[in-house]
From TrEMBL:
This is SMP-30/gluconolactonase/LRE family protein. Its cofactor is Zn(2+). The active site is at D204. GO terms for biological process: L-ascorbic acid biosynthetic process. GO terms for molecular function: calcium ion binding; gluconolactonase activity. Residues 21-262 form the SMP-30/Gluconolactonase/LRE-like region domain. A divalent metal cation binds at E23, N154, D204. Keywords: Metal-binding, Zinc. It comes from the Bacteria. The keyword Metal-binding applies. Binds 1 divalent metal cation per subunit.
Length: 296
């Protein structure tokens, strides 16, 4: 096994306002804007190409977002999945896949190739327990539970051909992959690609590039791991933030990585969450949009 290449990228900060738990960056290639969330604020944030920041306060903790075909934003809140209209400020309830019976909230989510919102939950029990799950949510509110026995569902991303879905559990520290039907959203059996140590970085949010590599935020290690389809770490990006939470590709050529982070004192001093960016020798893929697939 070849040792991974260590890279210290030329990082720039893209916001000045501190975040509590920055997460779920999504690049809108149609408008050249970056969306992300501050989970506990709670807020949905839009960063325009001019540097202007628009902040939309949410009525409950927000875990993730996705772009919609009609320019609304699908959001995973503590109270369920909603559609949010940035122009009017209106919310439309879609569904609550978690329910109120267990101590979980919605966490990492992403729109898949099938046009559905794939979103997982996170155990808020103390200590956390394996009662979280992964859900597939349609624009009509129909919901399918696709994985159970999780603690912190995370790391959703798809291969460039849409035929493999990646998924991680940040607390159980594993990365798995499923065969995926982009027409129906059907999953094959999951198979573990690798487990992680704390020093390698607990696998948080993720994205994939056009060459099929998986980029995982190592939230416990201040780094970003670029992982081959076989599960081997091939590159390690050492970051100036101690707790990166999720990367996404953006910029006009989809060759800029934006990475969110959370507030932490892990290094012995408090550092607020933020969003950083750096250019890479890899190209990302534009995001899928909620409701844009007629099948499934």
């Amino acid at each position: 096994m070849t040792a991974p290449r260590i890279i210290r990228p030329d990082v720039r900060s893209v916001i000045e306002q501190p975040l509590t738990v920055g997460e779920s960056p999504v690049w809108d290639e149609e408008t050249g804007t970056l969306w992300f969330v501050d989970i506990l604020a709670p807020a949905l944030v839009r960063l325009s190409h001019s540097g202007k920041i628009d902040r939309f306060d949410m009525p409950a903790a927000i875990g993730a977002l996705g772009l919609c075909r009609d320019h609304r934003i699908v959001v995973g809140l503590q109270t369920g999945v909603h559609l949010f209209d940035p122009l009017s400020g209106d919310f439309e309830f879609v569904c609550d896949p978690v329910g109120r019976d267990i101590n979980c909230r919605l966490n990492d989510g992403k729109v898949g190739p099938d046009g559905h919102f794939w979103i997982g939950s996170f155990s808020e029990a103390k200590p956390p327990v394996n009662e979280a799950a992964l859900y597939r949510v349609g624009a009509d509110g129909r919901t399918r539970t696709v994985a159970t026995g999780l603690t912190s569902s995370n790391g959703l991303a798809w291969s460039p051909d849409g035929r493999r879905m990646y998924h991680s559990d940040s607390r159980q520290c594993f990365l798995q992959a499923f065969d995926f039907d982009p027409d129906t959203g059907d999953l094959g059996d999951g198979r573990r690609l690798r487990s992680f140590t704390e020093d390698e970085g607990r696998p948080d949010g993720a994205t994939t590039d056009r060459d099929g590599f998986y980029w995982s935020a190592g939230v416990s290690a201040g780094r970003l791991n670029r992982i081959s389809p076989e599960g081997e770490i091939v590159e390690i990006y050492i970051l100036p933030v101690p707790a990166p939470t999720m990367p996404c590709f953006g910029g006009p050529d989809l060759r800029t990585l934006f990475v969110t982070s959370l507030s932490t004192d892990r290094t012995g001093r408090f550092e607020a969450g933020t969003v950083i960016a750096f250019d890479v020798d890899a190209e990302g893929l534009p995001p899928f949009r909620f409701g844009n697939h007629p099948v499934g």
